Amino acid sequence: MGEVEQEKSLHVPDRDDGELQHPRHHPHNNNNSSSSDVSLALLTRLMAHFASERDWDKLHSPRNLLLALVGEVGEVSEIFQWKDEVPKGLPDWSVEEKEHLGEELSDVLLYLLRLADICRIDLGDAALKKLKKKALKYPVEKCKGLSHKYTAYKNEELEAREV
């Protein structure tokens, strides 16, 4: 199904009857599909439509969206605040805890997309460019398994040149 069909078919039901669950997590689906089926462009359009329908465009200034985004990041951090180190996959978390985390992470994503849209930043393109820059800053052969800041690798290069 293309993005246009997804957008037309996407609706938010009045109650959660299970259709809001991601296919990967739906109890009746053995499919291991990923969430990559939903694009940033689709979510951006849906958020713009959502805000427009409610006449919220006038409220969605970059400043207001940034403050809302920071508030949502704070809510994500509260979830982890008093937990010890958490293993990947959250194996010890209840379904409810995972759903709550998913909701808060979704809030962060949606505010981030809305902020980028309002600022006329193509977030997908910007992220790809940033990944390319990071690959140059952190070459695999110099930083694999290490967590140093990229300046540590630059300093090593300078010291090697001086010798």
TrEMBL record:
Role this protein plays: Hydrolyzes deoxynucleoside triphosphates (dNTPs) to the corresponding nucleoside monophosphates. Has a strong preference for dCTP and its analogs including 5-iodo-dCTP and 5-methyl-dCTP for which it may even have a higher efficiency. May protect DNA or RNA against the incorporation of these genotoxic nucleotide analogs through their catabolism.
Keywords noted in UniProt: Cytoplasm, Hydrolase, Magnesium, Metal-binding
Biased composition, class Basic and acidic residues, residue ranges: 1-22
Pfam families: MazG-like (PF12643)
Cofactor: Mg(2+)
Catalytic activity: dCTP + H2O = dCMP + diphosphate + H(+)
Name listed for the protein in its UniProt record: dCTP pyrophosphatase 1
Enzyme Commission code: 3.6.1.12
GO MF annotation list: dCTP diphosphatase activity; magnesium ion binding
Annotated Gene3D superfamilies: MazG-like
Main location: cytoplasm
The keyword Magnesium appears for this protein: yes
Cellular component GO terms held in the UniProt record: cytosol
GO biological process terms, semicolon-separated: dCTP catabolic process; DNA protection
Compartment list: Cytoplasm, Cytosol
Annotated segments matching region Disordered: 1-36
Taxonomic superkingdom: Eukaryota
Subunit structure: Homotetramer.
InterPro entries: DCTPP
